Amino acid sequence: MLKKAKWLLGLTVLVLLVIIIAEYIMLLSPLQQTQRLSSIRLQEATAELTPTPFEALLLEEIIATPLPPADELPTPIPTDAMPAIDKGIPPFIPNISKEQERVFWIYYWKENEVWRVDSQGHKREMLLDTEKSLGQWLTENPFPDSDCCWSGPRVVISPDGNKLALVVVDVTNISDPGEKFYYSIYIFDIQNKTLEMISQGVQPVWSPDSKKIAFLNEGNLYISDTAREIKRVANPQTTDITISEYAWSTDGQRLAYTLNQGYQGIPEIWMVDQNAKNEPIKLLDVSPEHPPYGLQWVNDEEIIFLSSEGSKDRYPQNKFQNLFSFSIHTKQLKPVTHDMVVQTYRISPKQDWIAIGGYFPHSQAEDAYKADIWLESIDYSELTRATDEADAINIADWVPDGVRLLVWQQDGKPGLFSLVDGSLYKLDFDITQNYAVGGLK
User: Fold this and answer.
1) How far is the C-alpha of 362 from the C-alpha of 311, rounded, in Å?
2) What pTM did the predictor assign?
């Protein structure tokens, strides 16, 4: 009898415990229950994955909270509350006077020819003609006088300056819309003058160590390594969604990328491991009307990008295009620039400064919107104005020595803008709009 009583008591306690747990679960909000179930499914889905150190922090989607929109439209002219920023006094970057200017290469291409010239205007030489070497066309549109087809950069220089990635097409001057054509990627070794085919595809992006290339083929993201082994690392799954742009982390271990649906950007940023051991992870969402673009990494865990997030003014000249920073480690999204229209930006060779081409709508007259050159420290603590509207120059790229910027002058000719003394050295030779800054000579 005693044993039976103990058994009944234990059963009663167990039933009560089950009832209490059930009532607690019912008290959970639908969101908490969803998060709990998602966590369970996530553990099941990732049980056999082999995350790298950073990915150990990312066993769930990192979706940052969108920034709140601006309360008011920008003021058209400077006010006491929002004064104009005066032009800085050179040198614009601390300790830059200790660095030396060095001669570098500028590459440019026209029709099927790839040329280069050094920054002093010496040693101009043609490197190759793709039609003669490959029977392939470099800059020709398959369908002339149309907006058909991929139009990205046809020549991309490796970070070490030793190789060119070329995108060529096998057919041109197509009159029959049904005729097929293919883009292919070749690697040209500058020193050895050799050509090597990588794959059909477009949009090559070199890894920071110049050993791998990411590219698109039929909507999928692939990587080719030094052994020319090709692996697919991301697939949008549906035919109406495509990968639009992507960027390597500074350690070459990951790719961040954005998506398009048709011609419209999707307000998301994704990340994938270059070894393709794990499925892509969504990093963040922004507002649907303000999709991110212009992705770059500033270190192994921080991505910066452009977005009109926070802008209520739809007039193009006043619509903010600010830089934003997202940290994978802290999962924080924050603005780098405020109330600004950033037209372009470039990170310095040492990854310590950002050159920005843009303007503040509140400091411009309504009938004149002219971009200036600004310099932002990589810790986002200092914004310096390097030019004013009278200079009328636009950023092209950093020079490899990190001391100057290659710029376009108002007359469309290239020049070198010194960050040491603010001078503009006008190059006395022309290059086409199809150009890229190469390595040191």
Assistant:
1) 13
2) 0.82
Q: Which two tokens stand for residue 274?
A: 């270059």
Answer whether 14's CB lies under 8 Å from 7's CB: no
Within 13 Å of residue 313, how many CA atoms lie on the same side as its CB?
A: 18
Tell me if 251 sits within 8 A of 208, measured CB to CB. Answer: yes
- Cβ neighbour number for residue 137 with a 10 Å cutoff: 20
Residues of the chain with pLDDT below 50 are 1-6, 8, 13, 15, 18-60, 68-77
Q: Is 194 exposed, middle or buried (0-12, 13-18, 19+ CB in 10 A)?
A: exposed
Residues 6+ apart with CB under 8 A from 129: 112, 113, 114
pLDDT in tens, 286-332: 888 889 999 999 999 999 999 998 787 777 777 899 999 999 988 88
φ, ψ (nearest 5 deg) of residue 30: -55, -35
Burial of 305 (0-12, 13-18, 19+ CB in 10 A): buried
